[in-house]
DNA sequence: GTGAAAGCGCTAACAG
DNA sequence: CTGTTAGCGCTTTCAC
């Protein structure tokens, strides 16, 4: 059995209160301080955070709930959040709900029963109903990647429509009008927005929308790969492709290479998030990049502010912009 | 403030013990059961797991500590572990130590102060010193991916030497003797083993080892990419490449495609772990696969057994074998 | 600055 | 089956 604070009182002859005060950074006579520190060393004492959590009604942990852990975006965001939180002595309980709405609701219950001090989440569900209990208990919540229409929450998002506009406009400015898009399907919030941005910029430039240039599917390498092969063999094939997420970009590159098609000569492309590819592929890739670390940092810091009450106002909405990484993968059409 | 068990006693007129018994699955008179269930519904009561944890001296959470969260292997293993544990009512506190030994030690302290019931970890450190406190407190530990020489722990590993032997022997059986390897560097446990397996099978077949066929580096796409380019331009270039990890395989494929080199005609390759690639690349890829879900399941189940004391003996060592996925990426030399 | 005592929400004997 | 009671390990008044 691990040593308790009581063992320290016995060893030092001091009282519970004094030792506790020391542990919480209070003032103690130098001689007593020495006694306590010695005892702690001797006994290998470490605070029992469970007991402390009960006494203080706060656990110094935040729950992070996402749709899928084995995914680059989520993995990297979580790793960074965890990092920052830890530096402020907060632990992180990670749950992944596998894109399942029922599980998502259960996981929130689970996190609440663990009495997390706050919840950071990339929502799966389309409405915020599943967060009711957390709201009632006044557990701070920070949303990442999306918001809800039905209620305001703190959130950290990027403007996905604008990201697409950036990408597509870049292509248009280089003379392209036959532009394909490979994207997720309509029940994905970010996919919907990105597709909307694609439509928006085509319309703004009076370019007719070709429905067979739009390849909806899953957000996977497979979809990127197959959709690219299809788009490259379609009659009246597009001159440029907008690859609207990390995995899709990867799949597309593999398909293009495999077909022996060259970019930018035969096809122009602009990718998404795939820094790894943009760094190593030759010719280099034009890429839309989400500020993943900034997203993580904003979410973590916003949460920290809610936790230490330095932010108490209305729901704050952090809007980050995507960046545009220039490359050589887009051909200038005359 | 959330409702407590005491609120339920007031509402039902029953005692603490009865309600507690109900909550823990004990027998209660039907009428009382109804009363309690009604009160729970009414009050939106949920067990405070922190209080329960203190009373029971067990928290129903296990800590998972790994070197790097934004990595396919770790991400996918953790996602699966979390899944299984959750189904048994265990939560998961995830920490990533960024491959830093000092952080690793701190994280263990952190997990212990949170009183996790068990720890599952992919070790970073070369010795088990940092686990001392956990051992003393008799917190069950399950290692993944590697073991220590200095002390026996429960562990779930694959035979990395054998994996390499499988890969290299496959190449040799198809008539290759000029075989390159791209791998991690010597301070990576698994990389060392995989390289050792490479040497082993060459020696077993009396094939002379060419040191410039061995490309050590980081376990990254970049390394796979650049090393491949180097190996393909070296004089007396190898006829086959063994790509000894996921990221390296990905980088190599990109490099090969980019160079306009064809496999298996111009170069034979066998990859590692990259199921995604082996599924979508044409010609299909020969691939060594680690049973990631099985690794996760074994680790989680072993932990569960330790936790419920159904396994109490000596350290158990689960040895899983890698599989060989056949493909078309290896040319038969006459 | 220190100590005594009550309490955080729950569990677990032990009687009844 | 139910109720009483005494903790689990720590924090936090409130006197001294």
UniProtKB/TrEMBL annotation, chains A, B:
<dbReference type="GO" id="GO:0000976">
    <property type="term" value="F:transcription cis-regulatory region binding"/>
</dbReference>
<dbReference type="InterPro" id="IPR028082">
    <property type="entry name" value="Peripla_BP_I"/>
</dbReference>
<keyword id="KW-0805">Transcription regulation</keyword>
<dbReference type="Pfam" id="PF00532">
    <property type="entry name" value="Peripla_BP_1"/>
</dbReference>
<keyword id="KW-0678">Repressor</keyword>
<dbReference type="Pfam" id="PF00356">
    <property type="entry name" value="LacI"/>
</dbReference>
<dbReference type="GO" id="GO:0003700">
    <property type="term" value="F:DNA-binding transcription factor activity"/>
</dbReference>
<protein>
    <submittedName>
        <fullName>LacI family transcriptional regulator</fullName>
    </submittedName>
</protein>
<feature type="domain" description="HTH lacI-type">
    <location>
        <begin position="3"/>
        <end position="56"/>
    </location>
</feature>
<dbReference type="InterPro" id="IPR000843">
    <property type="entry name" value="HTH_LacI"/>
</dbReference>
<keyword id="KW-0804">Transcription</keyword>
<dbReference type="InterPro" id="IPR010982">
    <property type="entry name" value="Lambda_DNA-bd_dom_sf"/>
</dbReference>
<keyword id="KW-0238">DNA-binding</keyword>
<dbReference type="InterPro" id="IPR001761">
    <property type="entry name" value="Peripla_BP/Lac1_sug-bd_dom"/>
</dbReference>
